[in-house]
Amino acid sequence: MIYNKVLSANDVGIEIVMDIYQTSFPIDERREIDALKYMIDNEDAFTLEAIYDNDTIVGLLSWWNLGKWRYIEHFAVDEQCRGRGIGQKVLMEFLARNMLPVVLEVEPPVDEFCRRRISFYRTIGFRLHDTYSYTQPPYCSGRNSVELCLMSYNAPALYSLDEVAGLLHRNVYGVK
């Protein structure tokens, strides 16, 4: 049985989630662990969920409530558990309980691994905005910005990607 549990920074299992986080995302695409733990307990718009398969933590989902949008910041299933449909089940459940539009960032489709990730999101119903120029700001001093693509789900017919990017830059990355 697959289920999610919202975490606090002191929960049992937080170190397993942090290990999956660090091994699943390049350093420029993630927060410092101390900053992430601080956000878990102190940022009302931010949620970190552990993904469980029965009683074993197998992944994580971090997301933001940005008013009219939900933003999936990080989503990963442990490498040893991939290919079992866990990610699709978790994402479909997330979309079902969050009826608002959802946006996420992905690497551009420059290699097979990135194309497979994009294809995964497309099969669930996300739309790739690969003609829109988007840069993820650095998470902290000493980190680099990253050229990424935005994907959206259940987005209104008329919306501005500039507005969505601005919302992410202000609320998630703290860029004024």
Alpha-beta classification? alpha+beta
* Mean pLDDT over the full residue set: 94
Given the C-alpha coordinates, what overall shape results?
globular
Helicity range of the residues?
25-40%
- Termini, distance in Å? 42 Å
Structural account:
With 176 residues, this protein is an alpha+beta fold. It has helices at residues 14-24, 33-42, 86-97, 112-124, 161-171; strands at 2-6, 46-53, 56-65, 70-77, 102-106, 127-136, 146-153. The protein is globular and about 40 Å long. The mean pLDDT is 94.
Keywords, separated by commas or semicolons:
7-stranded mixed beta sheet, 5 helices, alpha+beta, single chain, 176 residues
What's the quick description here?
The chain is of the alpha+beta class and about 180 residues long. The chain has helices at about 15-25, 35-40, 85-95, 110-125, 160-170; strands at about 1-5, 45-55, 55-65, 70-75, 100-105, 125-135, 145-155. It has 5 helices and 7 strands; from the N terminus they run βααβββαβαββα.
Per-chain topology:
Elements: E1 2-6, H1 14-24, H2 33-42, E2 46-53, E3 56-65, E4 70-77, H3 86-97, E5 102-106, H4 112-124, E6 127-136, E7 146-153, H5 161-171
